[in-house]
Amino acid sequence: xxxxxxxxxxxxxxxxxxxxxxxxxxxxxxxxxxxxxxxxxxxxxxxxxxxxxxxxxxxxxxxxxxxxxxxxxxxxxxxxxxxxxxxxxxxxxxxxxxxxxxxxxxxxxxxxxxxxxxxxxxxxxxxxxxxxxxxxxxxxxxxxxxxxxxxxxxxxxxxxxxxxxxxxxxxxxxxxxxxxxxxxxxxxxxxxxxxxxxxxxxxxxxxxxxxxxxxxxxxxxxxxxxxxxxxxxxxxxxxxxxxxxxxxxxxxxxxxxxxxxxxxxxxxxxxxxxxxxxxxxxxxxxxxxxxxxxxxxxxxxxxxxxxxxxxxxxxxxxxxxxxxxxxxxxxxxxxxxxxxxxxxxxxxxxxxxxxxxxxxxxxxxxxxxxxxxxxxxxxxxxx
Length: 383
What we know:
By secondary structure, the chain is of the alpha+beta class. 25% of the residues lie in helices and 32% in strands. It has two domains: 229 residues, Rossmann fold (3-Layer(aba) Sandwich); 92 residues, TATA-Binding Protein (2-Layer Sandwich). The strands form four sheets. It has a ten-stranded mixed beta sheet. It has a five-stranded antiparallel beta sheet with strand order 12-16-15-14-13, with no helix packed on it. It has a two-stranded antiparallel ribbon with strand order 1-2. β18 and β19 form a beta hairpin. α1 packs antiparallel against α2, α2 packs across α6 and α10 crosses α11.
């Protein structure tokens, strides 16, 4: 407990707490006290930012620039992995405004026992330990290096919660039951093990995404035979939960030379950015797992000309961004799977249900099933 006491961070932490309160992200005085008291820069001594060329640059958070970044509502990338010819982030310190919104959404009370899935830097764990005390807080991560670094830094700050290194989907059964579970990673399916480890009436808040950008935070309550609840109003996104530290990307099949199928569509071309409810519903209507989204640039102007979908089986869809006078977009597909059909069906479902927003969508999770519904659980389909 030496270096962080000698840096000029305390007024910045108080300023961050005041800013989050003024923005409406923070309303509970207990969480404001925690944000003001936890030195985030100690838990995140180094971070990475991309420069104008897209190259990752490392910075330390004990400099003036680093302190400003650490005590701002900014996600800090803390770990990179090589993926072929580029690097991508594999761990981060979630931006504080999102974390405090999640903590308040969970309605955590004194004496609650909380499991944090995704230890990362330990910042969320530190906020919990400051509010609830060490014996009420457990946290797990699959990466042993992250867990040990967080353990050391938390101890240096005087926090001694229970930390474990394991796959997040397993939870931490030996310290259950919990009153709340907060997950700072996304999952395609909510693990039933989490439900088994919750007290009756307990709650879990997790980013449920069966596909890229396809989902949102869901607040699920524990009933005798299920977890059930609704999606939150504000959209959020987390890195996907990792299950193997050195997993390799699945190679995509090639459809080079395949005859393209060309038609038009009236469905807006990029729901994964413009209407994520529709994009989630597309995964109810047969969108294959592992589809990636992107943009095709005009070769002359270098401006976006089309939205694109690519499936692991090599199927593609290219949807022109510019509509004709009658509102139609040019669609070109290749490969065995017609990727745009699920999006068109999802958009029609959305219109038929009077354009539902996130809070009208809910999720029911049981031992073997995960079902998505609009307005009422009776209107559910397997997700």
